[in-house]
Amino acid sequence: MAVISATGLARTFRTKTGPVAAVRGIDLTVRAGEVIGFLGPNGAGKTTTLRMLTTLLPPTGGTATVAGCDLVRDPVGVRRRSGYVAQSGGLDPHISVREELITQGRLYRLSTADATARAQELARELDLDGLMDRPTGALSGGQRRKLDIAMGLMHRPEVLFLDEPTTGLDPGSRADLWALVRWLRAEHGTTVFLTTHYLDEADALADRLIIVDRGVVVAEGTPSALKLHHTGSAEATLQDTFLAITGRTPTPAHTAPVAV
Amino acid sequence: MLLQDTALIFGRYARQTLRSKFHIVFGVLMPLLYLLFFGPLLTGLPLASTGDSWQVLVPGLLLQLSLFGASFAGFAIIVEQGQGVVERMRVTPVSRLALLLGRVLRDAALFVFQAVLLVLAALVMGLRAPLAGILIGWVFVALLAVSLASLSYSLALRVRTPHEFGPAVNAFVMPSMLLSGLMLPMTLGPGWLDGLSHAMPFRHLVDAVRDAYVGAYTTDSMLYGVLVAIGFAVLAVTVGTRAFRTTGA
Lengths: 260, 249
Known about the structure:
Chain A: Keywords: Antibiotic resistance, ATP-binding, Nucleotide-binding, Transport. The structure holds two protein chains of two kinds. Chain A is an alpha/beta fold. Helices cover 37% and strands 26% of the residues of chain A. Chain A contains nine helices and ten strands. The model of chain A is unreliable at 253-260 (pLDDT under 50). Chain B has one domain (2-246).
């Protein structure tokens, strides 16, 4: 069953120098429980596509549904059923972890009692329970990222969009995040749609990769199938495969620290 | 649902404000300085009003509180944009109107609180005005705060950086203050200046509050003031809501 489905999804921006087509027609299908790596070089249209799928940006062409709700006709339905963890997180550094989680739950229509219980549950599962009364500004990068993800999970979304979830994290925190994504899928069957510049991360986490370039999908498949098809060798790196498909590297790409 | 969402957003920002006692009290400093060091200069001067100088000056200072405070409210949302807070809230099911109203009602509550402090200080300095007039003045402070904060957030969501936002707001606030007769009634000035000031919506608000402070509640100035204040608030909230819906688009 498709949790995300897009046909000809497009977005053109009006600029002073004329229209700019950032996304020219994305076709994709994501099945329930999949972890999808959404990759592309800088300017390929990844962020614009993600912003459309999370209702932050209305499309100028095509159609798409997320968790059964049409992006344009039922954006509130999309918001209720999906979670989004932006690269910037969205935490107020002066507010405590507990208050941020409870407010987030209330924004998704949970009662205060339910939001409080859910916050405790997630804090336990994500190893944040000793930090509940700390201001979010006092957390380490890895702890803050876990909290970002907990915020995205407060309302038990069917699909979770993660935008560059490990950018700026040290290797240990990256490894924790990878384990968290795997746990989400294994324990809760959550569909995860993640963008990343780190090809080792996509290779390790994603069931399937969708590679975009110049506003369209240029390749999709499992990491091993893509390697075999585009380089002739299943032993090739994803970096070689990406280069073969797009002719470019996904800046800053392979400079990422290797998770241990 | 709108009320519940608005209350939730209001609560979040009200708690944020309460954590900063300095912010709550500091805003009232400039009007207090005017009250202390400018107010006594006007005592006994003919100010084209049936009331005394305090009944002319204090209504202007009350609206100045809203004008200066609420116009710069957008600075906070520029910081929030950088932190990703606005985007995080925009992907929740909460209505865009509630995202705006929760914030601007917090601003209105803050400026009304400061207006209460200002009036208490003015009473000590010698202000005498009917209670109903004082209450009407606070309502105008709240309405103006809602309007200007809405427009300020709307502008801030578009300009993105404080460096663009500050000068743009200053370019609006200073002429507004000078042309609205906040310090002194515009009827004291030459005809062309008085005529020009009628194009400023704040002129009608301050005239209405000055009437309220002398107990004149059924004047033309009061009618125009009420109509302009409500119309301006509806327009500003519409613009602000649209900004929350379309920011980044």
